[in-house]
Predict the structure.
Amino acid sequence: MTAPRPSLAQDIAWRLEAFAFDLMTGLARLFPIDAVSDFGAWLFQRLGPLTSAHRVAETNLRIVFPQADDAEIARLLREQWDGVGRWAVEFPILDKIIADPARVELVNGERLAEIARTGETVVFISGHFSSFEIMPAAIIHAGIACQITYRATNNPYVDERIRKSRERYGVRLFAPKGTDGARELIRALSRGESVALMNDQKFNGGVAAPLFGKLAHTAPGPSSFALRFDVPLQPMSVERIDKARFRVVVHDPIRLTSTGDRNADIEAGVRRVNQFIEERVYARPAEWFWVHKRWPNETYKKKRAAKA
């Protein structure tokens, strides 16, 4: 189905956004990597608190850390804006970061090498941890045939630039939409290819499973694919060591059990995925992307009402 043609005003707005993206990219590529990263942290620590996303991040932090006092929440907010700012401005120079072996450490890389050597099919899962864009580069550079999925941006001009930026470090992306996207992923798995999906965003109509003690609608896709093709879930995460230096961690695979009750098995898989997300967030709380609304809107309304 062809997307509706945008209005002239919308098209102009998109083109201006794309120009700003090009300007940021050009400037970022002129300066040393760590200087670019530091500037992003400085900028977002000042601008982030002025946005509506700051309120979302604060609410999320209070959901996950209900016993934390105001000083602790304030500290985590500062640290997460530091991370978001670094991630935002590092994106245009990720190819330079990845090309420097001293900047990306791989933990349990033997597991990726094993997947590549044996041709094992897996469903990679992760969340928005630190500079999460580095994870697909690690998968592709290991020689694994994998469909790397992502959510396309609304602005088609910026989306085209994002794709080209990622192609500079070897990653070609697939943005699944609706049932056609799901079929393409199934075809890839049928060919013996792996797929990689982010699994820590709200998915309306998904499985309602606990996340930090509250029900969160979560995409069933990874668990459904793993059960259908009898392959493991392969968790990965990215950690920031210092400035623009990172650690990519390949965690132990998660092997789901098929009992014959498909719905119950998928729900059990979703719960295990959420448990993985919880463990990573508790271990490195400042590095999660807190500005996403992860829970139902009613949760945020109740939090705002309680604070008023």
